[in-house]
Amino acid sequence: LHMGKTMKEDLTVVAKYINKLYPPEFNVFSIYAELYHNYFASQAKKNAESHLEDKDIYLLLSWVHNFYPKEMRKDHALAMELDKVKLGSLLPSSLSKELENKYLDSEEVTVKNSLSRCLDKEIQRWKEDKEPEKLNGHFQSELLGIFVIQSIYSSQKRAEDISKDVGEELSCRLLKELPAFLRSYRDAFEDFKEKSKKHRYYKPILIANINNCWNFR
């Protein structure tokens, strides 16, 4: 953030005041821009090659795909001059792709584990001597239906905020995880139906799970 702010503010000063003090052939703005970019890119590369936590990978990819090319370089005071310089990306494409794959792998595992924990909690609730919750007057499982959908949606949205391609790749991966989760859910529910017919709230639990199907569709 500090490097980005410094680069943006300094280049704005160069564009507005310093550039016009030199003959055009000196390409003063281009020289400043390239020097700042090269330093910024070297720091980004250094960070990308070190051990990064998942949240750090997400932040670095956000800089590479969004903050740097869209917010900094498209600033109204700089865009026209920067378009002439052709600075390129903060990271080499191979390194950027490597980070994207790490992020996608991690996010896929995170969502998969989240769905699994959610189902475990739901199965535990079936075993309790409690009536299912009602939403708009109907038995439904807010934990299962809403939580699962929100987990997948929010994960897709975060990926799309990095780039369209990353968002599409994660969507493809999660669309494979969802059927696997639904199969586990179905198997657990069938097991409950067979073994828990004497449960005090057997019928409301059946209704709640049937109502969940509409959300999942």
UniProtKB/TrEMBL annotation:
GO function term, MF aspect, one: SNARE binding
GO cellular component, one term: exocyst
Entry superkingdom: Eukaryota
InterPro entries in the record: EXOC3/Sec6
PANTHER family per the UniProt record, alphabetical: EXOCYST COMPLEX COMPONENT SEC6-RELATED, TUMOR NECROSIS FACTOR ALPHA-INDUCED PROTEIN 2
Alphabetical GO biological process terms: exocyst localization; exocytosis
Signal peptide (UniProt feature, chain positions): none
Protein name from the UniProt record: TNAP2 protein
